């Protein structure tokens, strides 16, 4: 039987409480986890430990929300030290970073509809266009037109995940590595798969406090599970 190496990609826990205005939280919006968010990070560690998965190394983006989530996971593994991996840092959404999500949907829709807006175009139609752009972002990692400034970073992320995958294979063969990151970054881990992520079922997004499990075995990566969110 061949040696099995695991890479577990985790999204940080909640950063907003119920009833809060939801903001687009990018790298420029470094806010801590809520109480529930802390519990979500802890639940990931709890479930991995309960499943008998021996986590050996934990990497995290340097943001407050990712570091705390990583520390909660580490608490189930003898408080493993959390190592920083800069490439795991969330995208900078520019003028949309830290802004209300509802406002961003409308702005994205306006940009997507550029050249087709008439006096009869309704706000609902523009919002629908914005939601469609975000859906494509979540299903295919295709950037909305308004986020064109992120194209170079997106291209680099595919290279970074490929390099990180090689690092995991070579330096941590037969072990389990956890990478704690954010929604915008986790989706690009799909480059590890031969099918480019098609096997993920058209949903590249991880919910807050959710994770995916990649396994390297018999010379290739596969994804055994995606968007697994432990119960609290």
Describe the structure.
The protein is an alpha/beta fold and 232 residues long. Helices cover 35% and strands 16% of the residues. It is built from six helices and six strands; from the N terminus they run βαβαβαααβαββ. The chain has helices at residues 35-50, 64-74, 101-112, 123-140, 151-171, 183-186; strands at residues 5-11, 55-60, 82-84, 176-181, 211-217, 220-228. A six-stranded mixed beta sheet has the order 3-2-4-1-5-6, with helices on both faces. Helix 1 packs parallel to helix 2. The longest helix has 21 residues, at 151-171.
Strand order of the largest sheet: 3-2-4-1-5-6
Strand content: 15-25%
Mean of pLDDT: 96
- Helix-strand pattern, N to C? EHEHEHHHEHEE
Radius of gyration from the CA trace?
18 Å
Descriptive terms for the model:
alpha/beta; about 230 residues; single chain; 6-stranded mixed beta sheet
